[in-house]
Specification:
Layout: E1 7-10, H1 14-25, E2 30-33, H2 41-44, H3 118-121, H4 123-127, H5 137-150, E3 153-155, E4 169-170, H6 177-188, E5 198-199, H7 206-209, H8 211-216, E6 220-223, E7 226-233, E8 240-247, E9 253-257, E10 260-263, H9 267-276, E11 300-310, E12 327-330, E13 347-353, H10 366-376, E14 380-388, E15 396-404, E16 410-415, H11 420-439, E17 443-447, E18 487-489, H12 504-523
Parallel strand pairs: 1-2, 1-10, 2-6, 3-4, 10-18
Antiparallel strand pairs: 3-5, 7-8, 8-9, 11-14, 11-17, 12-13, 13-14, 15-16
Helix pairs in contact: 1-12, 5-12, 6-11
Length: 527
């Protein structure tokens, strides 16, 4: 491809979409490479009855062994693991959940939009573990302030240090009686509760809120179905000079010149690409003089339905809208002043009122089970735990020696294990959630602390982290590679720690900040 572009952007999700929006509106000519197709909205938004689907909504066997979120209704979104394999130790599974389509994982973003706090940015200063980020909340706040209105974030500002206030629309909707009772009970236990904080923008995706404006400038060219396999490096200058990719359908190889590169392919895909981009200068992966690239993988652990309770007054068809319904959020509340528990850091809860319990939780069969389901219809109250996974050096990704994807690109081997800190946290969460339910007068139906496998939360982070020391980090505070000045890595791989918050809002803010830094440095001739 011989067209003249100023910046090549890899990925079209939260980070790539934000980079395109900022750069193109500043007059920068950008080429965006997306590994998947453009969405066919007329076809993909058509609803079908289950009986019209070949597998009755249960997926074609073998396509999505680790994507628990997938169904036959949305099978076009998720990556086919047969064509895109990866590996992990036999007894330590990792569920790598991927989407390859214009808009990336923002197409299925749950829209939770929390800022990180200084408990995350400056975690080492608080409890001594890991490393601090090279920036703090004050530095990133101006970018959060601008991102939140774009995505029309709504919720409540509570003035809590662990849940920073935002530039958001007030959610003043009335809580149901069951939610009010739960909040009163939690308050007595010194457990804070609030409304969810969510993006309400149109489908809240890059393809709807970021890319259209970039395209309208005339400065953005998008190439779909471009599976990037390697980043080229100029041996004389030490700068990125090319991107090599394969057409997903034809399998033809292409190369595009790159003056500046914004890499936002998602956490593990970006690191995979850097590790596969070897050269004499960087034999262990591009920009990896530190040897840190691939290390410090972490995510949030999830305990789905860690507590399921029944609201007694809602039994037998009495689950009206006044009594039942609605949702809420409990931010981290442990270890805020001192580390006085068996674990450091903390956890959060999503909680929901309404719906019916899973039949698997009920001690009945046949007609008795059916009667019990009718009795309990609409009476359930459930809680899901999200806990902070620690960034440890031994949790890492590397290039598999023989495994290749359908386009011949070497695949990842992924190693991540939860340890005692996460286990103790999950147990504490189960008991505190159950205590709040009992205090509200609910009947505990089930409680557990069994985590889903790492990765299933789709919040994997780290492996290309930022820092002030080029011996212990890959990027500086502007998401710019220490070793390669015209390379910026702008997705979740740059995170140093992640807390319990959904990372998307922070990814958007970091990408905005990095893009404006690139524009500024380019004008000054510093790159």
């Amino acid at each position: 491809m011989k067209q003249n572009f100023d910046v090549v952007i890899i990925g079209s999700g939260a980070s790539g979409g934000m980079a395109a929006s900022i750069l193109c509106q500043a007059g920068v000519k950008c080429l965006m490479l997306e590994a998947g197709p453009m969405p066919d909205l007329d076809r993909h938004r058509t609803l079908k009855a289950v009986y019209e689907l070949p597998y009755r909504g249960f997926n074609k066997p073998g396509r999505f062994p680790h994507i628990t979120q997938a169904s036959e209704f949305d099978a076009n979104l998720w990556i086919d693991e047969k064509a895109n394999p990866y590996s992990y130790p036999e007894n330590d599974p990792f569920y790598w959940v991927r989407i390859r389509m214009m808009g990336g994982k923002t197409l299925r973003w749950g829209r939770a939009s929390w800022r990180l706090s200084n408990y995350e940015f400056q975690g080492k200063s608080h409890d001594g573990f890991g490393e601090n980020w090279p920036l703090d909340l004050k530095e990133l706040s101006p970018f959060y302030e601008r991102v939140e209105p774009i995505f029309k974030v709504a919720g409540r500002n509570e003035g809590w240090a662990q849940m920073p206030d935002g530039n958001i629309t007030l959610d003043d909707s009335r809580d149901s009686t069951s939610i009010q009772r739960f909040r009163d009970s939690a308050r007595k236990l010194s457990i804070p509760t609030t409304k969810p904080r969510r993006s309400g923008g149109t489908l809240a995706s890059s393809v709807n809120l970021l890319l259209p404006g970039a395209l309208e400038t005339g400065n953005l060219t998008i190439v779909p179905n471009a599976v990037v396999r390697e980043i080229g490096l100029d041996a004389k200058t030490g700068l990125v000079n090319a991107v090599h990719f394969v057409d997903r359908r034809s399998r033809r190889d292409y190369t595009v010149d790159a003056k500046y590169l914004m890499l936002g392919a998602s956490t593990l895909e970006s690191t995979r690409l850097l590790l596969n981009s070897r050269s004499r200068q960087f034999p262990n992966g591009l920009a990896n003089s530190s040897g840190v690239l691939g290390h410090y993988l972490f995510d949030q652990f999830y305990v789905k339905n860690s507590v399921v309770a029944i609201v007694p007054e809602a039994k037998n068809g009495k689950a009206g809208r006044t009594l039942m319904g609605g949702a809420g959020y409990i931010p981290r509340f442990t270890n805020l002043k001192a580390n006085d528990l068996k674990f450091i850091r903390g956890y959060a809860f999503d909680f929901h009122s309404g719906g019916s319990p899973n039949p698997e939780l009920l001690p009945a069969y046949g007609n008795n089970l059916q009667k019990l389901l009718i009795e309990l219809q609409g009476s359930a109250f459930s809680m899901t735990t999200m806990g902070e996974g620690l960034a440890r050096y031994e949790n890492r990704v590397s290039i598999h020696p023989t495994l290749r994807d359908a386009w011949g690109v070497p695949c990842l081997h992924i190693v991540q294990k939860y340890m005692d800190n996460e286990f103790e946290m999950a147990k504490h969460a189960m008991e505190s959630g159950a205590a709040a339910c009992e205090g509200a007068g609910f009947e505990i139906l089930a409680k557990h602390w069994e985590m889903v496998p790492p990765g299933e939360s789709i919040h994997e982070l780290g492996t290309c982290r930022m820092g002030t020391d080029n011996k212990t980090s890959v990027l500086n505070k502007w998401n710019q590679a220490h070793d390669v000045k015209n390379l910026f890595v702008i997705d979740g791989s740059s995170f140093v720690s992640g807390g319990v918050q959904n990372p998307t809002l922070t990814i958007l803010a970091l990408a905005m900040r990095a893009s404006e830094y690139l524009i500024d440095q380019r004008k000054k001739g510093q790159l």
